[in-house]
Amino acid sequence: MARVLKKGLLVLALFAVVWLAVIIWWQESRTLPTGVDIGLYLFALPLALLAAFWAGSRLLRAARAPKAAPAPAQTEALAEAPPRPVELHLIAVAARAGAGADAAAIAEALAEQKRPELDAELKTPQGFPIFAARVPGVDDMALYSVAREQGAPPDALAAGTLRVTALLADIARALTHDAHARATEQDVPAREEDWPRLRFDVLIPADWSEAARQRALAAVRAAAGVWPDARIGVAEHLARDAMAADLLLRQLAAEPQDAKAEPQWRIVLAGDGYIDPEQVAQWDGLSTLLTHANPQGRVPGEAAAGLLLAPPDTEAGVRITLSPVIQRQKSADARGAQAEAPLADLARNLLETAGVAPDGVAHIVSDADHRGSRPLEPLIVASQLFAHLDAGKDCQAVGVACGHTGAAASLLTLAVASETCMQIDQPVLTLTLQDPALRSAALVSRPAASVAA
């Protein structure tokens, strides 16, 4: 409504300026206007100016529309990655988002097609409530008080970063307990140096302050309290775009296995969040927030997710086969963008590489939300490859239920798909669609040994 009133006032202002200028000109030139003059100067002229302004604004928006051309440095590394699919083996996953407190609950929310609700605290600068996928049970004031007591600097006290740091710690704690249980199944190491090493690879948004990132890494390390501190390592990875998690997983899968190397357990974590009044105000100013006047805007969300990778000679729960990365011909954020055929070809080749028949796939889980072509892309893949799937029930979009989760979206999707695969014992296809230009897929399946067992 506010936008309509604003445009209406601009139109009235244009007519007023034109009429005032024409009337002054007639008075100064002592011209007696005819009916034709009145129609031409008082109506046709301002309408022509309006048409010119409208056409100019359309051209300007078209020029500024995002293009699928050169990706950032991090996505360029993906495009240069070898085309051969790579594999990872997982023991356990963990996730927490607005749709659920763990991966199983999030998977259930996707199956029930739940959506974010109006948030009780977040509002637009105009005072209107907005939809948001807030993780319940996270106390902002308590987190702020603890951070102040610990001496956190002001640039590490933003609500969004405090909340995500707490979520990352929760996921790190859960997966460390899983690793601890598996590592001590046969016997508890008597000496500290006999414990295998535990390494955390933590994806943190690159736009966080240095202080906020360091505090998050410290929280992850502290959450792994059941593991000897001297045997824990934490590595930071800056997430500069939506493909950061894909790049990291490919790097880990490509690392050579050294038979003489010291035993090591590895946990990959990612967290991001936008449940913050300042973030909402910024999105509103950039017209990227979902409102009644901007149905293609984002829904603020928050999430943390993690994967516990299986060390060599350890029985895995699921196998993740990662496809190569392809590039769209047209940006998914451009006006009129549609689903493109190469994504279905990518999924088909991935299934062939993994040795899985299309009719064996039980679900498609993507990180898509409601914006642009993203909701249609999984449906096109399903219609071309998986005639047995019900598009309404078997094509699930994490972004629709959990809101915009930024750097965590891809890992969150894999965690939910892995949990689903372990529950139903059937392969699940995932699609990474958040980036405007780049696309990838992954097939989550049970290892042959697990299936036989």
From TrEMBL:
Keyword presence, Transmembrane helix: yes
**Superkingdom in the source lineage:** Bacteria
Q: Which UniProt keywords apply?
A: Membrane, Transmembrane, Transmembrane helix
TM spans, by residue?
9-26, 38-57
This chain's protein is named Transmembrane protein
